[in-house]
Amino acid sequence: MGTIVETSTLREALEVVEDAYKELENDCDRVYVTLNLDIRKGELGRIESKVQSVEQKIILADDK
User: Cβ of 13: how many Cβ atoms within 10 Å?
Assistant: First the structure.
């Protein structure tokens, strides 16, 4: 299990975690959270480029 999010600030990332928790807390007796942060300065959009790379590889594999 895992979810990757990309934000421009740490505060935004923590807000995503808090919002997810708020969605679960009413229906769940236990919420287990593990949080990994990979903070890199520079441009955003790395996730989108990775998704595009995987999609291109799938298309190439289908063409074979």
Answer: 16
